Amino acid sequence: MSNEVITASPKHAAAGVDYDAIIVGAGFSGLGMLHHLNQLGLRSHVFEAGTGVGGTWYWNRYPGARTDSEFYYYSFSFSREVRDAWKWSERYPAQPEVLRYLEFVAEKLELKQDISFNTKITRAEYDEDRNLWRVTTAQGEVFTARWFVSGMGVLSAPSTPKIKGIESFRGQVYQTATWPKQGVDLSGKRVGLIGVGASGVQIVPVIAPVVKDLFVFQRTPNYVVASSNYKVEDDWMSKIRTNYDDIHKQAVSHGFAVPFKKPTVGAKDVSPEERERVFEEGWKEGGFHFMLETFNDLATNEESNAYASDFIRRKIRETVKDPLKAELLCPKDYPFNGKRPPGGHGYYEAFNRENVHLVDIRANGIDEVTETGVRVGERHVEIDVLIFATGFDAMTGTLTRIDIVGRDGLVLRDKWKDGLRTNMGLAVNGFPNFFMILGPQTPYANLPVAIQEAVGWVSRAIRYAEENRIACMESSAEAEEAWAHEVHRAGSATIMAQGGSAHAWFLGANIPGKPREFNVYMGGADVYFRRCEEIASNGFRGFHEGALATA
Ligand code: NAP
């Protein structure tokens, strides 16, 4: 192996490699990473499967797609140029607006010239003799780089269940996560929708007024929290602009990486009247405010959680007029937070429409898809269009669906076959000079803030390696064991541990055969960020102690 240390000079890759760094994906992660590495003077290149930037926001074009987080913390704060010029129009921006934002980021920061679009990466292999990564595209081209960074996203590998008979269906079939760019005309159609996670919950109220009939095939009902969307007025936007640094600072000191007030009491510790008042206030404020700003123990205490779960069930029963539908829509056998709660924009109200039908598939699932519809037990539902809103092989799917080959031919998906091992979700023993932006075991949190922190940390790590003549940044196996232990400990202490029965993606429980374990860190984004800072300021302890660490 070569111990040559590369000192970057602006925009000229080190001798013997095509690029200093190859990044996969041009969503929030890839764009943020590219910008940070450009600032280090490295010659970096992004490969992106889509024809444009955006990642999640490029692919998920289904009707109703919008953020569940508010604009002011669902964006980057690191670029003054971007934040001074960009104006958000809605409290919860819709997909086209987030996509325009990321295009704007790419243009303002002059990133596009370093991105190859329409280029899917199928393999990345570490060459130990030359201490570089060899990255192969679907077209068969091979590029080399010293650093290899995944920005492939956490909820980006769509999962479509194999339902018996699907190939015989004569109508149209769509997946929310790969919705056609040109849109789909659903007007006057009989539409079947499978899946009522955040994606399904968003699509229902938007297509309900357009379609002839909408049949929602529901296996597990969700706790859908009111969102309360409205326009962003100029004075609100200007206030946010002048406070971006403080907002980010507040977000990184919050367990969910949002700039929220931290409640100081538990739901079980106040009177029933006070509890109701606080819940009602949080419900009106909307979205994650209900989950995070009302009481401090909804994710950790069963009694307090039961009050919140009950409050939401009462809201469902008040909203949905048909008592039979209302009961079916009420989650009863797992707690609030047992799955990631979606934000609703008229979701429950949509079930008051005569053309919206709820088909309960809890007991036996869908039996088969026929040429003309869907069969559930004795009932055959005739449809023209079938939409899958069935989620993702979360956290690991993008990384395990391609061949990432480390030292001694070790393939990442094999390494994780029986359980996850990462160092802080950022690096993996056996995979030198490889970093993941939001790899598995990173916090369960608001993603743009977590991404901003991660790209900052990785660029610091790379600069540290360059400056300290460390040819090989490789995480130690001991650090991985310690982190796996902490991820398990933190997750087990939460209500989220009960998400298994509800097929929660953060436990890998939505993918048949996937090991059931926490795929995210539930111990708090704030705790995680502090730990990352400690590691960085202690010479990236645990991150260059692999077999071939120093030059
Ligand atoms: P999801 O939450 O995993 O929901 C998938 C849905 O498909 C569930 O209702 C699931 O039912 C159903 N399903 C899966 N396989 C099925 C089968 N064989 N038969 C019947 N139903 C089946 O996926 P998602 O809605 O795409 O959301 C995933 C995550 O992406 C969210 O939690 C969120 O983090 C993110 N997301 C965010 C936004 C936003 O912020 N605006 C929007 C969309 C997604 P079971 O529950 O019974 O398994």
Automatic annotation (TrEMBL):
Keyword Methyltransferase assigned: no
Record's keyword terms, sorted: FAD, Flavoprotein, Monooxygenase, NADP, Oxidoreductase
Name by which UniProt lists this protein: NAD(P)/FAD-dependent oxidoreductase
Matching InterPro entries: FAD-binding_Monooxygenases (IPR050775), FAD/NAD-bd_sf (IPR036188)
SUPFAM superfamilies in the cross-refs: FAD/NAD(P)-binding domain
Organism field: Paraburkholderia pallida
Assigned protein family: Belongs to the FAD-binding monooxygenase family.
A Pfam family assignment: Pyr_redox_3
